[in-house]
Amino acid sequence: MSKRTQIGQTGMFVNPIGLGTNAVGGHNLYPNLDEQAGKELVRTAIDQGINFMDTAFIYGPGRSEELVGEVIKETGARSEIILATKGAHKMDGQDVVFDNSPAFLKQSVEDSLKRLQTDYIDLYYIHFPDQDTPKDEAVGALKQLKDEGKIRAIGVSNFSMDQLKEANKDGYVDVYQGEYNLLQRSAEKELLPYVKENNISFVPYFPLAAGILAGKYNKDTVFNDLRSDMPHLQGEQFVQNLEKVEKLRKLAHDKQAEVAHIVLAWYLTRDAIDVVIPGAKRAEQVLSNLKTLDVHLTDEDIQEIDCIFQ
Ligand code: NAP
Questions:
Q1: pLDDT of amino acid 3
Q2: Does the Cβ of 260 fall within 6 Å of ligand 1?
Q3: Do the strands 19-20 and 13-14 form a parallel or antiparallel pair, or are they unpaired?
Q4: Which of 35, 38, 95, 222 lies 20 to 30 A from 45 at CA?
Q5: What whole-number distance in Å separates Cα of residue 171 and Cα of residue 167?
């Protein structure tokens, strides 16, 4: 069996390389997604010992959960998988609004359970904060679901520092999911120190910064999906970011690894980060990202990477 590490203090053990599945059935996020390729990459992940799956209602909407649920069912591996999903998006006609009210979260968990074809969710996150609900009340609703056995751990995502503190008033938050990668390190100021001090595990999303940290773009790359609106992939910023990534290439070469593996391995050296969830569109990317487990970064390597992206 592959290496296993505990997510925070949840008692749940995972391969430190997990899988982000917003490109599995996430038709509202990426155009022209092939569902069979999506299912295949989830199957490959499970076959190869990845056991932490990250999905959400809004990917699809609903479709990512359905596809991930179908594959888990077909592999018969439910008890070995740590399945994480998220909710907070309420469909209001054509609009989507955030809702963290206890009633909405409870209904959302029931709906996710059906789509995932399971009777428990290992980790349920409030995906985004709403304006109105006190965050300790929202988390209190998840605590009730935890006591009932419908979820095993409580997460929040995209909460500000103040919202996280309010959410964790009673110490119930197990996991925080937020944007963090070598090009976006603002979480280092307050969030990462807070979660470390409070035994909350930090799951960084966007670990490859939509692919640039996989080292595969150059200044002539043209984006035709949601990447075409991302500031870090435009103009002068894009050029500067590419230069930083180039500096990683030598280190990757010396370690007979790829840039993506060095980057993912670096996150796993951070306090409070136990597991990463790189997304993938094809099974080969899943197989590639697993090679991160073969990378050993020395203290000097860790510092060098830190400096390049300071
Ligand atoms: P990401 O992990 O930074 O980038 C993933 C993309 O990089 C893949 O779709 C693939 O795209 C490319 N890629 C992956 N592995 C590669 C490899 N080895 N070599 C080359 N390219 C590779 O971004 P993300 O998928 O958006 O984020 C990860 C996960 O975090 C998501 O799947 C989702 O589960 C979660 N997430 C959560 C939130 C939240 O609000 N909580 C927000 C965003 C994401 P191409 O093949 O098209 O280049």
A1: 79
A2: yes
A3: unpaired
A4: 222
A5: 8
